[in-house]
Design brief:
Distance between the termini: 71 Å
CATH topology of the largest domain: Nucleotidyltransferase, domain 5
Strand content: 15-25%
Oligomer: single chain
Number of strands: 14
Largest sheet: 7 strands, mixed
Radius of gyration: 27 Å
CATH class of the largest domain: Alpha Beta
Number of domains: 3
Helix content: 40-55%
CATH architecture of the largest domain: 2-Layer Sandwich
Number of helices: 18
């Protein structure tokens, strides 16, 4: 039974993941649209790396039969004198891999893994260690292991420049340090794949930050986890659950030392134990006293792309394409709403800035949720468009973070689940105002869908339908802040 590189990486996430892939594939969770979009961006990066090697021969496969033939095809290309081979397949013993780039250097080879990240990461070392073992077993001595990744300081001007977009990081030493451990893990992975029964499925055995992913599968297995399992606590992870398991703690009532938990989980348990909503009115009154009218409730939606779409932008830069703004001129006054949504392939920021200038006066507080986000977008635009820097800096000076009463524990409620996210706070305080009926319910999907319909080739009907959904979603974000602000004033009898 062959173990591929991707299957080995599954084993590292959790041994049972590999077994499920081999024996119970139907339990594997489907790839959601947002994750698929990230995969697609990664694939779009590969040609820019490959373009740096003019003598490159690209292989790959489109069917299972082509996959089976690929090792022989790869060997033939090398025998014919290839200098650089992309997407060739190599195998030795019970392990196999498809390598992004292998290029010849004298009597040895350089192994390059293409990653869409902006730096080399620890898991890339594990990936390349596996590949090196396969290639050297197949007769390809590896002199250097490197990661080709995105240079996120590159600023696009004109056509994308591959030389500037792509960075290479040598991790040969790190890979070599992993070789013996990787060989041992490969032996273990082969035994797991060959086993008749699934290995111990405890979530605390999950590695490589896959804890929540693993739980999505573990909940489908028997016996089920108890309802009060520690694994269902908010912000639980493999490291924390392992520490608890080592102490024989598997359910929430067994926890006696909360220092083993994250601060957010501690916050959740404290609120749950109190059982009632706790409001620190004195602190809340001080916070509310900082807010002056007219009050603006403001939210950006932004999109990021590995490949910068417009001149002046960088890889993964958060580019605002939409905002929602509610305004209340005086206490108990009427609520006005303004919005902007960019609807064509041009850079959204210049026209958005003009719209912002039309809707903000020079006075009053600007309420946002998680101030770092809006302030960062304003700072980035101020740098790109210095003629608007004074205006944007003035906006930042007036921003007040409406999340603070919740992140600073001025208001505590077990319904928040230890979180200060507006998606947790809103249903607890304003149950009749909900995201549940919206087709778009969070920012990642909003950004993906905007990019798909604005920069992609879709029908007019699909485009307009998505734009309508985006407007509803962003509008609810700022309306939620209006209602939460009103609720906080009610708590303090400030109305």
């Amino acid at each position: 039974m062959l173990i591929s590189k991707s299957e080995y990486m599954l084993y590292l996430r959790h041994p049972a993941w590999l077994w499920i892939k081999k024996h119970a594939k139907h339990l594997m969770p489907p790839v959601d649209d947002d994750l698929q979009a990230r995969f697609n961006e990664g694939h779009a990066f590969e040609p820019f790396v490959e373009s740096l090697f003019p003598n490159l021969i690209r292989l790959g496969f489109k069917s299972y039969d082509e996959y089976l033939d690929l090792p022989q095809i790869t060997l033939r290309e090398w025998e014919k004198g290839a200098e650089v081979v992309s997407q060739g397949r190599y195998e030795t013993g019970s392990i196999t891999c498809i390598s992004d780039l292998v290029r010849k250097k004298g009597d040895a080879f350089i192994l390059t893994e293409i990653k869409s990240s902006s730096s080399a990461k620890e898991e890339h070392t594990f990936d390349l260690a596996f590949q090196k073992i396969v290639l050297e077993g197949a007769g390809f001595p590896i002199e250097r292991c490197e990661v080709a990744h995105v240079n996120n300081s590159y600023v696009r001007q004109g056509e994308i420049n591959s030389d500037k977009l792509v960075s290479f990081t040598d991790i040969t030493a790190e890979v070599n340090d992993q070789i013996e451990l990787t060989k041992s893990r490969i032996d273990q992975a082969i035994l797991v794949a060959q086993a008749r029964e699934m290995p111990d499925p405890r979530p605390e055995r999950a590695r490589l930050k896959s804890y929540q992913d693993w739980l999505s599968i573990r909940e489908k297995l028997s016996p089920p986890l108890p309802e009060n399992s520690i694994h269902f606590l908010p912000y639980m992870n493999a490291e924390k659950s392992t520490k608890l398991a080592q102490k024989g703690i598997y359910t929430v009532p067994e926890i006696t030392d909360v220092s083993l938990l994250s601060k957010s989980t501690q916050k959740f348990l404290a609120a749950k134990e109190e059982g009632v909503r706790i409001i620190e009115k004195d602190k809340l009154k001080v916070f509310l006293s900082q807010i002056s009218y007219p009050v603006y409730y403001f939210d950006y939606e932004a999109s990021q792309s590995l490949l910068p779409p417009w001149d002046g932008t960088r890889p993964y830069q958060q580019v605002p394409f939409q905002y929602s703004l509610h305004r209340v001129r005086e206490p108990n006054g009427p609520v006005e709403h303004f919005e902007y949504l960019h609807r064509d392939v041009s850079n959204p920021m210049p026209s958005m800035l003009e719209s912002l200038k039309d809707h903000f006066s020079n006075e009053g507080s600007i309420l946002v949720w998680f101030e770092q986000y809006e302030k960062s977008r304003n700072n980035e635009m101020a740098e790109l468009y210095p003629e608007s820097a004074t205006f944007l800096n003035a906006l930042n000076d007036r921003i007040i973070d409406l999340m603070k009463p919740f992140s600073k524990n001025m208001v505590k409620d077990q319904a928040f689940e230890g979180s200060s996210s507006i998606k947790k706070v809103l249903p607890a305080l304003i149950p009749n105002l909900t995201y549940d009926d919206l087709d778009i319910q969070e920012g990642v999907s909003a950004a993906r869908k905007w990019k798909e319909v604005t920069l992609g080739d879709v029908s007019k009907a699909e485009r307009e339908n998505t734009y309508s959904d985006l407007i509803k979603y962003c509008k609810l974000d700022t309306l939620a802040m209006v209602e939460i602000h009103n609720k906080l004033m009610e708590f303090c009898s400030c109305r």
